[in-house]
Every structure is written in structure tokens, then in C-alpha cells.
Amino acid sequence: MAPAGPTQAPSARRGGGARLTPHASRLSLLIALAISGGVHAQQYRSEVRELPGAPPPAEQKSADELLKQTTDPYARALLLRDLAGAAAQSKDFARAARLLEQALATQALSGPAAEAMRRDLSQLLLASGNYKQLMPQLEAQVRQGNASPETLVALGAAYVEAKRWSEAIPLLQRALAATKTPDPSWKRALLAAYLGAGREREALPLLQESLREDPSQREDWARLVALALKAGDRERAQAALEISSRLGFLTEPEDRLRLVTLTAQIGAPFEAGSLLQGWLSSGALPPSAANSQLLATLWINAREPQLALAALEDVIARAPSAEAFRQKAQLHMDREEYPQAAQSLAQAVALGKGSGPEFLTLGMALYQQADIDAALNAFRRAGEFPAQAKLASEWVKYLESGKAREQALLAAARIRDRSEEVTLSGRLLGEAVTLAAPDPGGQTLASRAAASADGGDPLTPVGAERAGNADGSIPAWTGGLAPSQWPARYREGGALSDPYPSDRPLYTITAANLAQYRGLLSQGHQQLLQRHPSYALPVYETRRSVSYPQPIYDATQANQGRAKLLGSDALSGARLGFPFPKPQNGVEILWNHRVRYRGDSALLQTSQAVVQPSGSAQYLRQTERVLFRYGSIRDPLDLAQRNVLLYYLTWFGKGRNEVDFLALVHETANSEQDGRGVWVMPPKIPRMFRIPPVGYDQPFPGSDAMYFIDMVDMYNGAFDRYVWRLVGKRELIVPYNAYRLSDSARRYSELLRPGHLDPTHARYERHRVWVVEATERGGKRHAFGKRVFYVDEDSWNVLLVENYDRDDKTLWRFQEGHLVAQLPQSANAMPVVTYDLKDGRYFATRLLAEEVPPRFNLSDMRESEFLPAAVKNRYGR
Fold first, then answer.
1. Whose CB among 288, 322, 367, 596 lies 3.0–4.6 Å from 375's, allowing a Cys bridge?
2. Residue range 758-785: average pLDDT?
3. DSSP 8-state symbol, 699
4. What was the pLDDT predicted at 722?
């Protein structure tokens, strides 16, 4: 769809450009009054002499016949007027205008009569679209200062046709301002003038208004695309093209490909791939190597390797190339399909000259198949390239050792099938398409799932690995704790109750047996064990208890290919669920933690304590009221409409109902657009003060400076001070299902021991966690130079954080979040303990044992109570 340029003036019948289409009924009335009698006719009669009585036969002749016989200029003017009226009634406006021009040419009329006829002629010319011929007359009327809106529009349209854009704009603006219900064509005339004058900023809102009133104009959609592209707004251009497609305006292949490309460029490769796949399947786009290559690129960017492989197969069938085989090989390597990877690499080498990276990858693929001799040959060839020589020689040395073949056989035995079934997005096509991938055993995933105990899908609905680990110490995920599986005495809003009361530790890790389990422990836990002989980790059977409501699962799947980061601190396109179930970097993982579902709203009363090395503790009670707006099942917020994640109100006090220090926070999803809003009410001052957004390494109230604002909830706030690297995933001993720490039978004095939390009532399990390393970004400063986050795959909760000193790079503070699954189906860390490994203090927060139980999904919690004025009125004293 070629964008319509500013100089185009489509005809009135097409409804575009500067051509005008005045209301037909209004125009007919004006012409009838002007030509068929009434006031104007009386003016004509007042100007002419009385003619002799005509013989009866002459009165019956037609006006055309009388015109041929009459030489009197006044009579001719009247006859021409009558003939013009008849032509206007039959909607032959061009002929009517010519007849009026002839009447004026007689020069038999006085000034007022001639002026009235010129106005009638203006209306006719307006209807016929002959603006250039009309221009001198219209200019004269405008100069007199009594021009009607129609006259202003007609002259403005004439200027548009003459490319006199700047002169047209004020006339058209005056006409539109003077008319309550202007014809849509008037707005398009002004739009053409804006575009021609290069005033795109003013053109855009007018164009959007015109499209809202009449979305059927193909040219207007084309103009919107052109304006958005010129402004660099790819998202708006893509949206305009998408609507054009839905309206049936995209008929040319290049227009459809432009929509595909723009959809990918705004960060939605899955949608773009689904659209291109659908058009190729339906024949709306021709099959070609170029289109298949584009499709493969989109699927690669969407992290859909199986679909990318199918597209690359088509590319290779049409136009085989070394690059296509290299891409195919890399996808097979990522999927651990080593025989196919080796075959593709061999073909890439045959078609090209072969490179060091190709031979290295080929060697790795052959090694994974336990083909040691062939792998050796590939690594030796890689060693011929200087850039790969060192690594290749290390591989050769290893393969020539006695361990290589045994390790290779073990690796080959662990390779598992990666066939998948993918449902394409139908958002841009109007329907969904399911592609079942071929299975080596002749079955699709759907057919295998029917007989599979794990449901077939390798990932859970939120992106965790569904299967257990090799030795069974981590079981398969089977849905987590359903509401019906909770203890009968437990109710939502009630005290936490252990759903596994009969479980006993399988073993306990202490300083004495640390070496045996070092590979399963974080650096923080290793240091605690080495520092405190009384510290221990009781390890229980792994229970994958976390589950979320079905709307969260559905929303998470819908977010794939739609959610994106416009910057590290700007989430876009996500709705309700986890935005990145298949994360590609560390920031995406931390965003999953940040927006995880915790109920639509929550009211929590907890205690926090600073514990000295001696064991003495200083307590402070905290109350929190939270209204989640992004993560609300009842009323999920569209981030495109409102930039809000949650509303948070908290206050501190030593007594249960005491309000000492109060803070109100409005958290945003895109802090680059709108920063976090923070208001505080200091003790005994009943006023709300707006303060600059707090965060980063500013101390948290009552924590004795051990706890920073961005350590709340394990991590919250901006991501801009660090470079976030996704290290990978590993199995780790982590705090999990820690219900006994919040049991009402416990006392804080019992739980908070010198040096560490009492491990007797803690519970640790073996789980898979994502590992994310954050290192200080150049030009930025934070008290912690490096941080390592361990994020639970089932819940996306951060469970452990290692915070390193920025000066000597030693582990300084270690955060430990004791996870519990709860009702409503969600998960959170309670309590959270931060250990200062330099001075022996620790800070515990979210202590629940002596508090009233948390409440969730409060029906009476409203946004209005989080306004600063409402907070002041309610809590100020």
C-alpha cells in the first residue's frame, strides 16, 4: 500500500485528498433557492423592463427554443438562469455552472444581481470540483469579508490543488471552526494542506480524528503509516497497517511484507512470524526463498527453533546456501540434535570454504555423538585458523585423553527429543493455526501427550521445566498444590498451615559435611556454614508446590512474542501474566519476579528485626496495603493505557495499631516515561510530602542500614545501574515450603538466634534455579559492585541474592527468601533474612508467626484510597 503523498487529490467519489463533497441535500436547497425563484428571482425582476406580452404559442416553447429566438440580454440572462436551475435539479452541476457563466457574460445584470448569481455559481463550481476556474471569484468574496464556510473551503481547496499550502490552511481552519458538523472532505482538504506544508505534527491528530469518524478511507490509513514512519514511530505504523489489513486494504505483496517487517521491528517476532506463515499458507504471499528466509529469521527471533527449522528447509530446497545450512546447524545444536547439526555443518562446509567456528561446532556435534575420531579431525581442522587454534588444541588434548570417550557416551545418552507442537498467533489473521512438528517415532506431540504421564509439554505454563532431573531428586511438576489439596483447616486469609506435616529431613548439611554438598550450595550458604558451627540446612524431599490460577497461565502464554522491553526499565506489551516465560537475558528474568502474581490485592501485618551478633533484637512492626494493577485477575490493567504496576501504602510502628512513619508509592511499568511516585508522612506531622523517587542503595527504614530500598522483595526498582547477565540454570539447595517458620506456635525470640535464623524450623529443598549476575554498569555507582540472583523456575521468585562489596569484591550481604506457596494460588518469600557477613548482624523481615494472617483479594480496596489526599485524611493525626 503506497502511502498517499500530500500532493495527491483523489476524486470526491473516492473520498480522499482535497476534493470536497458538500452535503447533497444542503447544496440542492441552496441551488434551488438561488436559481429557481425566491429572493434572487425577485431581484432579477426588479432590474428588467416590462416586456411586451408574448403570444400564447411562444409561452409554451422550451427555454432552449426561446433562448435561440431571444436577443435581448436581460431575457437571455433569465432564460439561462432557468436552464441552469433545470440542470442543477438533474445534478448536472457542470452544465448548470456553464449556463450561469453565460448569463453573467451578458453583463445585463446590475451589481447586486450579478453578485448573487456569482454566489450561485460558486456553489455549482464547488459541486463540480472546478476550483481553479473558481479561484478569482472566491478570492473576491473572501476579500469582502462575508465569505461563507463553503466559500472558504472552496478557495482553500483551490489553493491545495495549486500547491499553495500555506495560504490554504487558515481558510480551511476558519471554515471548520465556523461549522458544527463539517463534511469529512473538508478535514481531508486541511489534512492535505498540512502535509503539503510539512506540518506533520498538526496533521496527525486531524488524521486520527478523520479515521475515527470514517475508517473506510484507504488513503487516510496510508497517510497515517507514512506519518508514523517519518516520525520514527514504528509501533504506530505497524498498528495502522494492521488495521488496514483487517479492513482489506492490504492487497499488494509489498504492503503485506511491510506489515510483517514492522510487526517484527516493534518487538513482536512471534506475531510477525504467525502473520507471514498464514499469508504464505493461504497464497496471499508468493512462496519464495526470500520469504522463507524472512520467516526463518522471525521464528529464530521469536525463540521458536522448530518452526525456524521448517522454514530453513524450504529455503534450502529453493536456494541452498552455506549460510542457510549454518543457521540450521546452530538451531540443531541448541536443541541438542547433534546428528542433524553435524550433517548441516558438513553441507555448509561443502558449499563454502569452511571456517574455524564451523569446524569447532562440527567437532562439538560429533563429540556429543561419541564419534571421537571424526571429532578429532574436525578440531584439528579448526586449529588451522589462528582465532580458534588455542581452543581447538585444548579439545584435541582432551579427546586424546582416556576420559573423553566415556564422557561422550554419557552425554549422548542424555539427549532427549525436542519435538514440539506450536499454536501460531491468529491475532493479525483472525484465526489460530496449530503446527504439529514431525516426531522421529511417527507421532506428533499431541498424540504422545495423550499417553504421556507428564502431559507432553516440556515446559510448565509459566516456563519451568516440567520434567524432573536425572536422579529423581527433583520430581516432575504435576500442577502444584491445587486449592483442594490444602489442609482442611486452612482457608484463604487464614494462618499458613503446612501441607506436608509428616515430612522429615532426608539429610542435614553442616560445616562437617559441607565438602560433600558444596556443588549444590550458593556461596552465601557456604560462608554461613563455615562461619557458624550452629548453622545447618535441613534438606527435605523436593515438593514442587507452586501453582497459579488459570488466567495467569493463559496470560503468560499470550505474552510470548508480545511482551518486550523498550529499555531495561520500560515494560511494554505484557498483560497480567509473566511477561517472559522463555527469558533470553537477566533483566527479563527479574521482570518476571517483579510482576509475579500475588493476588489482586493484599493486606499484610508483619514484623522486622535487627539482630545483633549477641542475639539481642530490635523489633518494628510494618503494615502493608497493596493494590496490584498489572497483576490483577479481577481487573487487569492495560499498560498501553495506564502506566501503573501497583499502589503501595505502608507504615511502621512499635505497637500493633501505631502509625509512626508512613510511605505511599505509585509504582510504574515504564519508569523512563513516568518515574516511581513517592509520598511520605513523617512522625506526628499530618502532611503528605512528595519526595524524589527513592531506590537503589538508600537504606530501608528500621534496618540499621543493612537493607537497601532495592533489596525489598529480594529486588525491586530500576535496573539501570547494572549489566544483567544470564549465567544459566543450575540445581541448588534453596529455602522452600517454609511454612513452619510462620507457624503461630513459634515465637520470634525462638526463631531469631545469635548469628542466624534457627534452622530447626527451616526447610530446604533441591530445585532448579535461574542464575543471573548483575555487575556495576560503567558510569553508575552502587554500594554493591556485583550481585548474583538465584530465581526459582516454578514461581519466578528470587530465593537467594549474593551482594558483593564494590571495593574488595568479597561477599558482603546475603539475602535468603524462604518461599511458601499460598492461597490465592501464588508464592512469596516469608520470612526474608539478610545476613551481613562482615559484622555478624542480620536483618529479618516479613516475620508472620506472631501476627494476624495476611489477607488477599480485599473487595473493599479501591484505587481512590491510594491518593495522597485520601491517605492524609485517613491516617494523619
1. 367
2. 92
3. B
4. 92
Residues 368 and 411: beta-carbon distance below 8 Å: yes
Task: Tell me how many helices (H) and strands (E) the chain has.
Answer: 31, 22
Do residues 33 and 87 touch, judged by C-beta distance below 8 A? no
Give me the residue label for grid cell 463533497. Answer: 21
List Cα–Cα distances, 138 to 51, 104, 147, in angstroms: 34, 15, 8
Task: Kindly report, residue by residue over 106-120, the tens digit of the pLDDT.
Answer: 887 656 666 667 667
Q: Would you place residue 83 in the very low, low, confident or very high pLDDT band (cuts 50, 70, 90)? A: confident
pLDDT at 391 over 90: no
Q: What is the pLDDT of residue 25?
A: 32
Which H helix or E strand runs over 666?
Answer: strand 661-667
| pLDDT mean over 543-550 | 96
Residues contacting 362, CB < 8 A, separation 6+:
342, 345, 346, 349, 378
Summarised one tens digit per residue, pLDDT across range 58-78 is 345 677 777 777 777 767 777
- Whole-number Å distance between alpha carbons of 558 and 426: 11
Q: State yes or no: pLDDT of 19 exceeds 60.
A: no
Q: Any long-range contacts for 263-266 (C-beta under 8 Å, 24+ apart)?
A: 263/238, 263/428, 264/298, 264/301, 265/234, 265/238, 266/234, 266/235, 266/238, 266/564
Note if the bond before 440 is cis, omega within 30 degrees: no
763 contacts 496 by C-beta, under 8 angstroms: no
Nearest of 628, 479, 463, 455 to residue 544 by alpha carbon? 479
Collapse the DSSP code of 340 into the 3-class scheme (helix H, G, I; strand E, B; otherwise coil) and give the result: helix
What pLDDT does 47 receive?
A: 39
3-class DSSP assignment, residue 162: coil
Residue 78 DSSP SS3: helix
How far apart (Å, rounded) are the C-alpha atoms in residues 711 and 700?
9
**Quick check: 489 pLDDT over 80?**
no
**CA 877/CA 869 separation, integer angstroms:** 13
The residue whose grid cell reads 530465581 is: 791
What distances in angstroms separate CA 486 from CA 494, 532, 580, one per listed residue?
Answer: 12, 36, 29
* Cβ atoms of 197 and 181 closer than 8 Å: no
The angle that helices 165-177 and 149-161 make with each other, rounded to 10 degrees, is 160
Residues belonging to the chain: 877
Q: 10 Å Cβ neighbour count for 836?
A: 18
Q: CB-based burial of residue 293 (10 Å sphere; 0-12 exposed, 13-18 middle, 19+ buried)?
A: buried
pTM above 0.90, yes or no: no
Q: Where are the beta strands (DSSP E) in 25-100?
A: none
